[in-house]
Amino acid sequence: MFDLDNRSIFNTFTGEALSGPLHDAGVQLEQLTVVTSTWGDWKDAHPDTKIVAEDGGIGREYSDDPLRGRDDNGPIFPVGDVDQRNAVQQPVVGIITDNGTPLAFPVDELRAALEAGDTPMLNDIVIIADGGGFRAETTSGEMVATHEAFWFAWTQFHPDTLVWSYP
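^ thats the sequence. predicted structure below, dont judge the formating
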């Protein structure tokens, strides 16, 4: 991720500025939740949603499969040692708790649990279905930032992750 105005580059897993003037200033972005969904599922759940810029605000349009199946058979680059608790490209919803503990909820298991009417929970973090994707909150109802990623990528930055499993 990069800042178009000053060309600083950021690590999307940590929010840390890696180069440019924002790196020199020690900037670290606050993590926010991004729900991975289809437009149809999101619009059904949130009918008042407004699209601000269909092209992302930068004059580009993206196809439904901009990578054209590039990663269908696994990562196209070396990923190092991969934690064997999940498949390399298993999507997970990752969370860093207030005390710094990384958690991961495998997406396939989340869907199964939620469809069965169960509540996925680990370390007082509850996962909630939202618009075809997921968000998280504490058991007391406070929103928690989530990061959906492939397992291999999440564990490169958070190797000590606790993994929720179902059933």
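The radius of gyration is 17 Å.
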